[in-house]
Structure formats: structure tokens, C-alpha cells
Design goal:
The complex is a heterodimer. By secondary structure, chain A is mostly helical. In chain A, 82% of the residues lie in helices and 0% in strands. Chain A has 2 domains: 6-50, no CATH class; 62-169, no CATH class. Helices cover 66% and strands 0% of the residues of chain B. Classes of the chains: A mainly alpha, B mainly alpha.
Chain lengths: 170, 188
């Protein structure tokens, strides 16, 4: 006598058999008490699983999550402000360097003895001289050192700040 | 307000009403917690992972495309966060890919008494905790969340055929266990 496999019984329960397969399975189930019993126990299990208990989280769960979200939103805003602050300082520093260069050029400018073209060439020459003085072989290590120091300090402050925010968020 | 659909709530959050997110939390927290608790076999871990998942989902809401179902998208986050937690905790817990081909035999050490015997759903809930992670997830998503095999395959990133195999094996294993514990009698 033909018996149905568990696989076929499961597919029968899930309505996955085609019309012919379903008819054939129903025929076997009708004639086989053993298959009918297996189908019934599987149906019982399926029914019990459909009534599976839903577990409940702690009563203040929603408010805890919402607080964490608010904190993370706040810290993200603060992080943005911090980055804008650091970038602004760098921009101000750049403007200061350009200002000093401009000041040096204007200081050396003599309107009585030079024509416009001569003056322009002079500005460019003195500016490039000033820049090459700053970045010459003797000073480059000092400038590089100061710049790197500034970067390291900024990075340290940035990571320390991020760590603090992460801790606060938790 | 509670009758709003998931997409309507998401739209409201995107418009700046962050507090509306609590509606989504209330809607999904218990069912997602049930799944996590049975996956991680620990309520405290489950609650922590669930908090992280809600936080991740909130952060990623702007990447959520409205054509997908929120529940599928959210459960993918929950499932992946749980897997990350599991892999960090015990890497050897189970070789997920090979477990599909292995025969699944369940043995429950759950200590039950006659009064609890009446509460079949409670017993089943405990037994599901003893299923491998993937099996427990499929059972929860299918029966508690009412997801189709296609949706489950999307959440767990496995084929639909694998979902069906897992579902059938879990059901058979649970049936055998229920018979052996005398919860269900084979009606001959």
C-alpha cells in the first residue's frame, strides 16, 4: 500500500500540491489510517504553532528606545557642530596666512618708483619669495612639524569627542 | 493614530515627527522580541538586540524604499543584528549552511508539569528555543509574523526552497517531540 512521505504531507498542509498531486494524496489519506493519523498530528502541530505565545518586552521598552534615539539625534547634531568648528578654525588659519602674506606685500609696495606692471611682478615675486622662504629646506621641517602637531591635536580631540558621544549614547 | 499604516507612519517621521516612531516600536516590539528570544535563547540579549535594531531602523529610515514592506525590511535588520550578536558570542553555535541537510532531532529538557501541560503554546515556545537559530527564525516569521516563504527568504537571505525545507523539518521535529512528550497523540 502506498504511503505518503512527511514532505508530501507538509506540502499538502501548506497547499503546495497541484491538483493531481492533491487528489492522489487525498486518495491515499482516505484509504490509509496510518497516513490519516500522521496528517492529523501534523495538522495539530501546525494548529498549535499558529497559537504560539507572543512574548512581551519590558513595560518601559518603547520609552527607553525613544530616549536612545533622541540622544543619538542630539549627539549627531553636536558632532556636526564640532566638525564645523574644526573646519572653521582651519579656514580662519588659512585666511590669516593669506592676510599676513598680503600685509607683507603691501608693506613692501612703493607707488612712486614703480609702474603698474612692475608692481604686479614685484608683488608676485615677493609673495612667491615669502612662500618659498616659509617652505624652504630649513623651515619646511618646522612648518611640517607645526602642521602635523595641529592635525594630531585636532584628531585626538575629534576621536576623544566621538568616544565621549558614543559612551553618552549608550 | 494607531490605525495608520506603516508607510503613513514612516512618512510622518520623515516629515519631522520623530515621536511617531514609537507607534512602529509598539507595533513590532513584542513579536520581534519573541523571535529574538527564541533565536538568542536569552531574554536580556534579545531586548538589547531589539533596541539596537530599532535604532538602526530609525537611522536607516531615509534609505527605506516605499515599494518594500516595512516588516520585511525591519525583520532583516533584526535577523542580521541577532546573527552579529550570535557570531560575536559563540561562533561555533552551529554551521548554518550544513544544518539544512542534517536530520533534525529535537530533545527537550524543558521541565514541565501537568498544569503547564495545558499550556501547549508555552511549551512550544520553550521547545522552539532549542531549535537551531535558522529554524527558530523561520517558525517565528511564518507563524507569528504570518510571512510567506518568499518574504522569509528575503529576510534571511536564503532561497525559498531552503525556507520550505526548514519549515517542514521544524514542523516534523516538533510533531515528533509533542508526540514523545504526550502532548499530541497520534490518532490511529
Amino acid at each position: 500500500m502506498k504511503t505518503l512521505s512527511d514532505e508530501v504531507l507538509n506540502r499538502y498542509i501548506d497547499g503546495e500540491l497541484n491538483r493531481d498531486e492533491k487528489r492522489e494524496a487525498e486518495e491515499v489519506i482516505k484509504n490509509s489510517t496510518e497516513d490519516r493519523a500522521r496528517l492529523n498530528t501534523l495538522l495539530n502541530t501546525d494548529h498549535s504553532l499558529r497559537n504560539l505565545a507572543v512574548l512581551e518586552v519590558s513595560s518601559n521598552f518603547t520609552s527607553v528606545v525613544m530616549k536612545r534615539i533622541q540622544r543619538s539625534l542630539r549627539s549627531r547634531q553636536e558632532q556636526k557642530k564640532f566638525i564645523v568648528g574644526i573646519v572653521s578654525i582651519f579656514i580662519i588659519m588659512c585666511f590669516a596666512v593669506v592676510g599676513i602674506i598680503g600685509f607683507e606685500i603691501v608693506k613692501n609696495f612703493n607707488p612712486e618708483t614703480s609702474s603698474m606692471i612692475k608692481d604686479s611682478i614685484k608683488y608676485i615675486t615677493s609673495a612667491s619669495q615669502l612662500i618659498s622662504n616659509i617652505f624652504n629646506n630649513r623651515n619646511i621641517s618646522i612648518v611640517g612639524g607645526v602642521f602635523s602637531f595641529g592635525l594630531i591635536i585636532s584628531a585626538w580631540f575629534f576621536f576623544d569627542y566621538s568616544r565621549m558621544l558614543r559612551k553618552a549614547r549608550k | 493614530m494607531k490605525d495608520l499604516s506603516d508607510l503613513e507612519i514612516i512618512e510622518s517621521i520623515r516629515n519631522g515627527n520623530d515621536s511617531d516612531y514609537s507607534l512602529l516600536i509598539d507595533r513590532y516590539k513584542n513579536r520581534a522580541f519573541s523571535m529574538l528570544s527564541r533565536m538568542l535563547k536569552n531574554n536580556m540579549d534579545a531586548e538589547e538586540v531589539l533596541q539596537d535594531s530599532f535604532l538602526k531602523a530609525f537611522t536607516g529610515l531615509r534609505n527605506f524604499k516605499n515599494e518594500a514592506k516595512f516588516s520585511t525590511w525591519f525583520y532583516r535588520i533584526v535577523y542580521n543584528t541577532a546573527l552579529t550578536r550570535l557570531s560575536g558570542k559563540l561562533r561555533k553555535i552551529e554551521n548554518e549552511t550544513s544544518s539544512i541537510d542534517d536530520k533534525l532531532e529535537l530533545q527537550s529538557n524543558y521541565d514541565y508539569n501537568s498544569s503547564e501541560k495545558e499550556d501547549l503554546s508555552k511549551f512550544l515556545g520553550e521547545v522552539i528555543k532549542e531549535l537551531p537559530t535558522k529554524y527558530a527564525s523561520v517558525i517565528n516569521l511564518f507563524y507569528l509574523e504570518g510571512m510567506s516563504c518568499e518574504e522569509i527568504s528575503e529576510v534571511m537571505n536564503i532561497t525559498v526552497a531552503s525556507v520550505k525545507v526548514i519549515l517542514h523539518r521544524s514542523r516534523n521535529a516538533l510533531k515528533d517531540l509533542l508526540i514523545s512528550k504526550d502532548y499530541i497523540k497520534e490518532i490511529i
